[in-house]
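Me: I keep going back and forth on a fold encoding question. No explanation is needed for now; the record alone will do.

Assistant:
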Amino acid sequence: MSSRTFVLRQEDAHHDWFIVDAEGQRLGLLATRIAQVLTGKHKATYTPHTDDGDHVVVINAEKIELSGAKWQQKVYRKHSGYPGGLHEETAQEVRDEHPERLIERAVRGMLAPNKLRAVRLNRLKVYAGAAHPHSGQNPQPLA
């Protein structure tokens, strides 16, 4: 009697749609849950090398919460590669200009840095307000 390990084939993968309201939720906890859904770890058919994750629509990204004084203390840095090319902005500045980038960046950091990360990030749709164009897909609320 042998028990074989289940391996999901790519053609058997099914991608559902979920919607998340970010109003009043903590950034890190929300990003962790979204990363699990994008990866497909919430399904019994999870296979690490197969893309079985679901689509996630996040609304009200401008109303996300950070604990303590992180709005001023959390700094996002990038460098152009040229001398003096360091660009820094606080979480407050990012939220004021592009609130959806806070969630996108947090989720990106929680996904594995492999060939599937870009594919999984393409299934993440983040909107600053409550309106979104994905009502035709009938997204279900994410628990």
Remarks:
- Residues 14-65+107-141 form a domain with the Ribosomal Protein L13p; Chain: A; fold (CATH 3.90.1180.10).
- Helices lie at 27-39, 70-73, 91-97, 100-110, 117-122.
- The first strand starts at residue 17 and ends at 21.
